[in-house]
Write a structure and sequence with these properties.
alpha+beta; 5-stranded parallel β-sheet
């Protein structure tokens, strides 16, 4: 088994800090990379070494592959952890690591490539007896193909980018007259965001919930799942705001079937490392494969809080060639965890990003409270990157205690100097429907629309 002695973290923000801390506890040296705009960032201060990889724009720094690979070679790193976003789901980056004798802490490039093409991934998991959303087999070839496929699938439907993610490249279509304009818009957005104009058609599952299953696999064909996460609380751009584990509305039989399906999906592409299989669940608890995220997820801490498994450390050990130290029957689930993503955004202005200097910062604490963040008092939030300031995670013996703890933490937390989404989190946690577990992916949009009507 190759020993990993030094890891370069090809990322920034809270996930870079999270990985550096895991490395330190494993007695592995860490190398941070940073842009000129991030010279004062916490991950730069905490790492054992740091290398500037370019100007502020991500394409010139965090997405500049030659600079990232060169930084790893120059500093003598054995491995690269990509975090999430950036190069984390790039098969060409994983291949470049392999070509340069660097261990890519993630799945094999072949698995990333298969799951990265959403249309192809649907076909692969379908062959592994994983239910998929009714829709096209393969991408749209031309206008006539789109018209025929849409007629077969039925309206309303979604046009989705084959290389998509993060809610981009998706268009809802309710009427046949709107189909072709929506296809063209989705193609343009997909080309701009992902460099590929391939799109496909899926049936729209209305009032669905977004539930995902965490899986782990090693290089020897051993797989486990670590339960599900409820991710239905999303903003108008389909970006997650609140995640929790376990999912309150699932019964034991559906939960078990989803876990088994997620493992079959991972096995179908020869996956190893941590990964997440995302499903849509309809009002009758039927679940359908959406996609697999071949990386660590932003919301991984809620799974860690109820299982006691450190997913980042497991990623590193698996990449080094270790076998999974547990089997499925060893995985246990205790209590309930909730995560609120704290972002520098103004929900009352269409989640417009807010930048500036944090003039006062007080994170909450106490039993069952965890904060993952890269910001500090005096930190200037740059305008170039994701608005995530940190993640506030709480654990309780049950969902009621977790919600009470989160509300207490949100009331204690002070972030001044810029707008954040903290007030909206409090409103959601106090909402009777949320508290009953009666919500779906349209919850936040409907709540904001209702608030707007009341204010008018």
């Amino acid at each position: 088994m190759p020993a990993i002695k030094k890891v370069l973290i090809a990322n920034r923000g809270e996930i870079a800090v999270r990985i550096i801390r895991a490395c330190r506890e494993m007695k592995i040296a860490s190398v941070a990379v940073y842009s000129e705009a991030d010279a004062d960032s916490l991950h730069v201060q905490l790492a054992d070494e740091a290398v500037c990889v370019g100007p502020p724009a991500s394409k010139d720094s965090y997405l500049h592959m030659p600079n990232i690979i060169s930084a790893a070679i120059i500093t003598g790193a054995d491995a690269i952890h990509p975090g999430y976003g950036y190069f984390s789901e790039s098969p060409s980056f994983a291949e470049a690591c392999e070509a340069c004798n660097l261990i890519f802490i993630g799945p094999p490039s072949s698995a990333i490539e298969k799951m990265g093409d959403k249309a192809r991934a649907r076909e692969i998991v379908q062959s592994a007896r994983v239910p998929v959303i009714p829709g096209a087999r393969g991408v749209i070839a031309n206008d006539q193909d789109a018209i025929r496929t849409a007629a077969r699938v039925g309206y309303p439907l979604l046009i989705k980018a084959a290389a998509g993610g993060g809610g981009r490249g998706i268009r809802r279509v309710d009427d046949p007259d709107d189909l072709l304009p929506a296809v063209r818009t989705a193609i343009q957005e997909s080309e701009a965001a992902f460099g590929s104009g391939e799109v496909y058609i899926e049936k729209l599952i209305e009032n669905a919930r977004h539930v995902e299953v965490q899986v782990l696999g090693d290089q020897y064909g051993h797989y486990v799942h670590l339960g599900e996460r409820e991710c239905s609380i999303q903003n108008s751009r389909r970006q997650k705001m609140i995640e929790e584990a376990p999912c309150a509305f699932l019964d034991a039989k559906v939960r078990a079937r989803m876990g088994e399906a997620a493992v079959r999906a991972a096995r179908a592409v020869g996956y190893h490392s941590a990964g997440t299989v995302e499903f849509l669940v309809d009002q009758d608890s039927n679940f359908y494969f959406m996609e697999m995220n071949t990386r660590i997820q932003v919301e991984h801490p809620v799974t860690e809080m109820i299982t006691g498994v450190d997913l980042v450390k497991q990623q590193i050990e698996i990449a080094a060639g270790a076998k999974l130290p547990f089997t499925q029957k060893d995985i246990t689930f205790t209590g309930h965890a909730i995560e609120c993503r704290i972002t520098a955004e103004n929900p009352d202005n269409d989640f417009r990003p807010s930048t500036g200097t944090i003039t006062r910062l007080l994170w909450p604490g106490g039993p069952g409270v965890r904060v993952e963040s890269h910001v500090y008092q005096g930190y200037r939030v740059p305008p170039y990157y994701d608005p995530l300031l940190g993640k506030l995670i709480v654990w309780g013996r049950d969902r009621q205690e977790a919600m009470a703890r989160m509300l207490r933490c949100l009331s204690e937390m002070k972030i001044e100097g810029l707008k954040t989404n903290t007030p909206l989190h409090t409103r959601i946690l106090l909402d009777p429907a949320y508290r009953k577990g009666d919500f779906n992916t349209t919850f936040v949009t409907r709540k904001l629309a209702s608030a707007g009507r009341e204010a008018a």
